[in-house]
Amino acid sequence: MRFAAHILLLSIAVTALPGCGIFGGGDDEELKPTELLDFEQTLAIRKLWSGKVGDGSEFLRLSLQPSGDGIRIYAASIDGVVSAFNPQNGKRLWRVDVDERLSAGPGVGEERLIVVTQQGEVVCLNTADGAEIWRSDIESESIAPPRLKNGVAVIATIDGKLRGLSLFDGAEKWLLEQALPPLTLRGTAVPAIVGSSVIAGFDNGRLLAAGLDDGIVEWETVLSQPTGRSDLERLADVDGAIAVVGQDVYAVGYHGRLAAIAAESGQILWSREISSYSGIGADWENIYTLSDDGEVIGLLRRNGSEVWRQTALVRREPTSPVSFDTAVAVGDFAGYVHLFDNGDGTPVARVRVGKGMISGAPVVIGGNLVVQNESGVIAVFAVKQAERPVKSNDQDENGGT
Questions:
Q1: Euclidean distance between CA atoms 166 and 191, whole angstroms
Q2: Residue whose C-alpha is closest to residue 316's, from 41, 39, 21
Q3: CA nearest 87: which of 316, 364, 310, 307?
Q4: Which of 26, 181, 224, 375 can bridge 56 by disulfide, Cβ–Cβ 3.0-4.6 Å?
Q5: Phi, psi for residue 395 in degrees, rounded to 5
Q6: Could you read off the pLDDT of 360-387 as tens digits, one per residue?
Q7: Is 161 a domain residue?
Q8: How far apart are CA 234 and CA 210, in angstroms?
Q9: Above 50 in pLDDT, residue 11?
Q10: Do the strands 63-64 and 102-109 form a parallel or antiparallel pair, or are they unpaired?
Q11: What's 365's DSSP letter?
């Protein structure tokens, strides 16, 4: 009953918060999603291929995101199908059915692939052929992609626990747990691995670093401080992706702040009062996040100064932003991927995967943009490269004859 009540509260929170519902009540124009406007496309995007992964999961907001290892692209669907694709042409290389409904994954590393079932079972497959290696029951749901490195699979679950499982046999190497507040958003921060440490955020507003091999906490900081009189006002979740550039970590909390943190010490380098339930994207110059109602915000990575703010996706259920080429890519509830110039935020391209909602952020794999929607469709996009003029055989390098 406690687990069911917690899920009910999560649902109430999501529908009650600004920007968390696709449509508002009644005919109030202010609560409707922003209409898409025409613009001149200046970034040439082409679809390399698309395919069907499996059944859809409309509006469940699961964390089924594609991943890659430089050899294959992997994807999973809610009905338990896991597939490997050729990155260049989309040919399906193998397909397996784990016979359980899935909620997170796949995470890939060290020739292993990890998915998590809705019943709290972690399944490990061989990346070469999809053969099952082991299963481990963690008795809790995960809606954050697993992270794999140094023989460890890091799994974050909605009950405030972070686990390190052995990639060899699925045995639990360590377990960390944070107390949950009475009310939380339905979301889990995607852990990040920096060197030999894992960085994780929790629904109580805390961010911590722990040893990847032993789970010993190295530092802990409060990113989002619960305040207010009601449980709704005191929401302080740290959800979405944590960005890492070099040794700098970037994270944001709901009803809290966005901060740059030194990975080795936990020292806050700078912070800004921005409330967001989304994750963060980053490149060498800027970082990108969303406001509560869906504004896309670009900030300088060195000091957090705001560079631009884009309102085109307000109330369109945008995903976490992802840096791609010279743009920032964001998915929405209608299956569109929007690309904004990373320097000034102007729209530069728009493509559509299909009618299904894009709830998981797009992923950059091998220099291409890979997107999966909740209808179970995967699509891969690339930036068209300008063609070089063909040099005539009778011309020298300066164009003379």
A1: 17
A2: 21
A3: 364
A4: 375
A5: -115, 145
A6: 899 999 999 999 999 999 999 999 876 5
A7: yes
A8: 26
A9: no
A10: parallel
A11: E
Backbone phi, psi, residue 11, to 5°: -65, -40
In Å, what is the CA distance from 303 to each residue of 39, 88, 258, 260?
31, 39, 11, 8
- The structure tokens listed for 142 are 């995960």
- Separation CA 248–CA 270 (nearest Å): 11
Identify whether the C-beta of residue 327 lies closer than 8 Å to the C-beta of residue 345.
no
Question: 253-286, pLDDT tens digit by residue?
Answer: 776 688 899 999 999 999 898 877 788 999 999 9
Helical segments of 126-192, H only: none
Cβ-Cβ contacts under 8 Å for 399 (sequence gap 6 or more): none
Supply the pLDDT for residue 352: 96
Structure tokens at 168: 């060899």
Rounded distance between C-alpha atoms, residue 24 and residue 185, angstroms: 18
User: Quick check: is 282 in a domain?
Assistant: yes
| Nearest Cα residue to 64 out of 368, 369, 383, 357 | 357
Q: What angle is formed at CA 208 by the lines to CA 205 and CA 209, rounded to 5 degrees?
A: 165
What was the pLDDT predicted at 221?
A: 87
The three-state secondary structure class of 82 is strand
Number of H helices, E strands in the chain: 1, 33
Tokens found for residue 58: 């409309």
Domain count, the chain: 1
Q: Which of 272, 385, 259, 379 is nearest to 325 (CA)?
A: 385
Instruction: State the Cα–Cα distance between residues 117 and 126, nearest whole angstrom.
Output: 17
User: Does residue 391 form part of some domain?
Assistant: no
The label of the residue with tokens 């869906």 reads: 294
Domain assignment of residue 34, yes or no: no
3-state secondary structure of 169: coil
Tokens representing residue 83 in the block: 């597939």
pLDDT at 18 over 60: no
Domain span including residue 205: 40-383
In one letter, which amino acid is 100?
Answer: E
Which CATH number goes with the domain that contains 248?
2.130.10.10
Residues forming beta bridges with residue 92, ordered by sequence position: 85
Count of Cβ atoms closer than 10 Å to residue 227 Cβ: 12
User: Of 361, 351, 354, which is closest to residue 377 (Cα–Cα)?
Assistant: 354
List the strands of the sheet with 152-156, edge to edge. 147-149, 152-156, 161-166, 172-177
pTM score: 0.86
Q: Return d(Cα 73, Cα 92) in angstroms, integer.
A: 9
Q: How far apart are CA 185 and CA 3, in angstroms?
A: 14
